[in-house]
Amino acid sequence: MQKEENTVILAMCQVGQETDDRVAYREQELTGLCEAAGGTVIGVVSQKRAQVDGRTLLGSGKLDELANLAEQNEADLIVADRELTPAQVRNLERLLPCRIVDRTQLILDIFARRAQTREGRVQVEIAQLNYLMPRLTGRGVELSRLGGGIGTRGPGETQLEMDRRRIRTRMTHLRKELASVERQRATMRGRRRRDVPVVALVGYTNAGKTTLQSMWVRDKANATAPMGQNRLFDTLDPTARQVRTKLGNEYVVIDTVGFVEDLPHHLVDAFKATLEETKYADVIVVVVDAGHEPIAHLETTRKVLDDLGALSKPIVTFFNKMDVSPIQPAPDVHAVETLYGAAAKESLEPLYETVERLLSLDEVRVTLHTHPNDFIWDRLLKNGRIESADPVSSEEWLVTAVTSRRDAHLWQQQRQDGSAHEPQNH
């Protein structure tokens, strides 16, 4: 969708037993997608059918209504609420006075506008080419390039074949480039896992993940990070921010690309490397806009997490934007804990404390035998608080300290000095 195309009419098809509420929800979502792409919805044509018309999506009567509405309002674009087949696109273009795109193409356009990094742009281009390949039809013999000269036999390579070959060549190049990026990401991920735990913020687009990450950085690292904007797919390129507990233990909070219902498989495949950051996280925080279809958004998010093989991770569900939500959604029975708040308005210590507990970074008091030259002593000075230290001998001290449960458990496993130092809850 080009920049100057800013007036849009939606073509909605209500199929089978689909409820009116469900259709209203899809219309709201599609309107949001159009706005994210720079369009303004000026009309909606909807039809209830037993099944989608295989030729034209809607019936002939509704198509006439759609064409008349587009002409009267001089609409720039019609957006279908379902992915259209190449044949449907060709048929509709003959019957309608303006261009038509489907939901998938609309999302691809938004992604193309928002991608900032080279990795993001490569992923979007792969998705676009995957979408385009089966739609290179209808160009026929008139674009054939005939073989020239004596001895040639029949038509040469058609323009269609040339286009397909160019796309395959381009996709091969892009996939090699993306594979290189994936290797770099895997190396960085491995380095992070050795050093610090990882928290992934996931959820429906525009749920407030970027704003939450920004507040997390402000509250736990005394730093600033860009705030999210109130628009769909504001974040396409994942960002990792390092934060600290009160004792100084570090962990990473990653903001990920937002989900959407029936996320086109072209995008799921292309953004696999990015989405897999979730799979390798230690804790997942599902961020849900409490005021906009929270149950549907939760179901969408769980489906994507299931596809990624990430449902085995500890999951915290955070219902965001409670300051403007008319109701408090019921707790998520699939999460280890459900919390409520407003990332843009308040500090979220209960969320931070819950995540740090799941990462074993919550505080415990330990009593152990160590000495000033031991690595444990250094660790306590860096990421802990020594409350008392009494010499027992020239090489051994009895120390009481506050540290993370993670470190206490590690020392308990190692038992290098043979002493018992069971953590005591602080």
From TrEMBL:
Gene3D superfamilies assigned to the protein according to its UniProt record, in alphabetical order: 6.10.250.2860, GTPase HflX, N-terminal domain, P-loop containing nucleotide triphosphate hydrolases
Keyword Transmembrane assigned: no
Keyword Magnesium on entry: yes
Keywords for this protein: Coiled coil, Cytoplasm, GTP-binding, Magnesium, Metal-binding, Nucleotide-binding
Purpose of the protein: GTPase that associates with the 50S ribosomal subunit and may have a role during protein synthesis or ribosome biogenesis.
Entries under HAMAP family matching the protein: GTPase_HflX
Protein name: GTPase HflX
Source organism of the structure: Alicyclobacillus fastidiosus
